[in-house]
Amino acid sequence: MSDQKQYATYNDVHNLCKEAAKGPLEKFQINLIIAIGGGGYIPARILRSFLKKTPDAPNIPIQAIGLSLYERLGTDSVEEAPGTEVKRLQWLDMNSSMANLIGKNVLIVDEVDDTRTTLKYAVEELEKDVEEARKQLPAEDEKKNKETKFHVFVLHNKDKAKKGDLPKDMTANRYHAAVTTGDVWICYPWEAENIEQHDREAKLHPIVDTKKTTVEESST
């Protein structure tokens, strides 16, 4: 990863979610959202507002999972380094929350698709657990034969070699990244201690959409 930092503001995140919800995500017909904490929480909440079909429609439920790719290097150390194994910090209950996913169009939301390791884990484990929950339903339950479709939304996808793979059908039809960036260090507003300074940095070092830049350059 490059040492170059690029900054996203709250307004950036809000507008990216709005554009995605009113555009590419609309066809997914989402009726349940799963936010990957902590970067997926704020985008998920914004998306919920814009995915409502009418003002009086019920809110789309949001559930949360917590995953970590980082581990402590020592018992007294605060230093962290990338781990080799995804760890569950928070997960859905098999008997209630997981069963509620059966037959739904589920949108998994995170802030960034970096190595894709976390997304791969989330998709595979959720698919596996939903299938297990389905098997536990009584034979007469009408949800027994209903299909669950998982979709993915991220604010930023880093254009780099990925360590994890998503199903080909998902990357082709059930995946949307609002912006494609280079392999840069992305700074999000919810990580900032001084939000005014963060916004000033964002004016100097905004997120660069590499796909948009390429298209604009090729058309000139």
Automatic annotation (TrEMBL):
Statement: the UniProt record of this protein carries the keyword Plastid: no
KW Signal (keyword) present: no
Annotated InterPro entries: PRTase-like, PRTase_dom
Residue ranges of every copy of the Phosphoribosyltransferase domain listed in the record: 13-153
Protein name, per record: Phosphoribosyltransferase domain-containing protein
Entry's Gene Ontology BP terms: GMP salvage; hypoxanthine metabolic process; IMP salvage; XMP salvage
Coiled coil: 116-143
Taxonomic superkingdom: Eukaryota
One Gene Ontology cellular component: cytoplasm
CDD domains xrefs: PRTases_typeI
GO molecular function annotations of the record: hypoxanthine phosphoribosyltransferase activity
Keywords: Coiled coil, Glycosyltransferase, Transferase
Gene3D superfamilies recorded: 3.40.50.2020
